[in-house]
Amino acid sequence: MSEAELKHIAEDYKWGFADDVEPELKLKGLSEDVVRAISETKGEPEWLLEFRLKALETYFQKPWPTWGPDLSELRRQMDDFYYYVKPPVEGERRSWDEVPDEIRRTYEKLGIPEAEQKVLAGVGAQYDSEMVYHSIKEELEKKGVIFKSIEDGIKEHEELFRRYFAKVVPPSDNKFAALNSALFSGGSFVYVPPGVEVEVPLQAYFRVNTEGFGQFERTLIIIDQGAKAHYIEGCTAPIYTTEALHTGVIEIVVLEGAESRYTTIQNWPVNMYNLVTQRALVHENAYHMWLDGNLGSKVTMKYPSSVLKGRGARSEILSIAFAGDGQHLDTGGKLIFAAPDTSGSIVSKSISKGEGRSSYRGLIKVPQRAERAKVNVECDALLINEASKTDTYPYMEIASESASVGHEATVSRLADDQIFYLTTRGIPEDEAAALIVRGFIEPVAKELPLEFAVELNRLIELEMEGSVG
Amino acid sequence: MKQTLEIHDLWVNVEGIPILKGVNLTVPRGEVHALMGPNGAGKSTLGKVIAGDPGYEVLRGQILLDGEDIVELEPDERARKGLFLAFQYPVEVPGVTIANFLRLALQARRGEEVALGEFYGKLQRAIETLEWDEAYVTRYLNEGFSGGEKKRNEILQLMVLEPAYAILDETDSGLDIDALKVVAKGVNTMRGPNFGALVITHYQRLLNYIVPDVVHVMMDGRIVKTGGSELALELEERGYDWLKEEVGA
Question: Rounded to an integer, what distance in angstroms lies between the CA atom of residue A206 and that of residue A184?
Answer without folding.
Answer: 14
